[in-house]
């Protein structure tokens, strides 16, 4: 048997024969070779752990034992299973068997083989969202089954224009990846860009949608996520209706939507389920919380190190008394507390749920109190760091919360080196980076840059639904009009 000399040396070449393939698969204990001894003589090859026992016993074996067949075509027409095929290509046979197909070889047939799909679908039930939880609204979340996830979206979009294109990505895993969009609304350039980038992926394994998200990003070195990751079918549906493209990966309970903007990472599902004034206020609170989380501790370091005159006279005695016995400069005590917060976060995330909650609450109280009592940090800074950590938890999308945790440290470094000037320099750097950043070729900072007043109706605030008559300009949809604005605002009499 010939084998490739480069790359995956254990992978057989196209010249492999059926006997050599069977001998190779027999090395696995769960590979079965079942010999037919009834009216039809032949052999069945399959993986016991990949095949559904009910389909194998009730549909395949029962049909083979109750009838006498002379050819594979007769078997194919009798077995009540969809998707059967007859082929002699060894690579196709290998791939199909590894996906849960049963290979049937008749005694008189040496070349062609009948492949009968009988995969065992072992999946969990549809549950509630764990990351993007909402107080009101749907309580369904994606699971690890691609077919189930597509079903959750399709039942919300019962129209023939809803299109699903599937491909396999990953040299070894051959993971099923689906591209979802609404034909006639989604921009063809966006769809073709996504499909082309998926086709160009050269990697051996794709185990989750996060792999795809990193490989499709316009700038893979940026700390900012450029593709939205969500576990909610209703969020995916809303993105598709706006003209965006969704990506689903078999084995992943998350879907990706693109192109996206930075504003979407601070938009929660509850924003569309609450009255628009309430939703707008909460969205502004989230945006303020992000700025506070990033800038609060750097401002503390900058003011205490370089700009003492900015401290109010009434607050100055409190700060002096709290720092009287602290042996470290502000930057050291800030880094100590920030690292303690990050350690508690990681410990709480990696431990089981109940233990993690205990570690987070008790550990924070104990470490914070001990640090103040030991004179390692001031109680004023402890309050600032605690509120800053709470503010970072307000982001509804987990991806952007990691970014917020990361970019806080460059601001701290700039504050220690040049004070407020250093903070301004780091801010200018990140703003410039965001201006250049794109998502599938579309501006990531839209609608603020480039300025698109129409899209501001659902950006930093959310206006009422009857004011959002057009789809976002960022997606460049083929059909920008959502509904007739005159009919939406029309008030008919009850007798009409």
Short summary:
The protein has 496 residues and is α+β, with helices and mostly antiparallel strands.
Features:
496 residues, alpha+beta, 3 domains, five-stranded antiparallel β-sheet, disordered N terminus, UPF0353/GerABKA_families, membrane, transmembrane helix, transmembrane, Spore_Ger
Query: Unreliable segments (pLDDT under 50, ≥5 consecutive)?
Result: 1-14
Mean pLDDT: 88
Write down the domain tally: 3
Order of helices and strands: HEEHHEHEEHEEHHEHEEHHHHHHHEEH
> N- to C-terminal separation?
81 Å
Which structural class should the secondary elements be placed in?
alpha+beta
Which descriptor suits the 3D outline? Answer: elongated
Spatial order of the strands forming the largest sheet: 1-2-4-5-3
The total strand number stands at 12
Q: Supply Rg.
A: 30 Å
Helical element count? Answer: 16
Q: Biggest β-sheet, characterized?
A: 5 strands, antiparallel
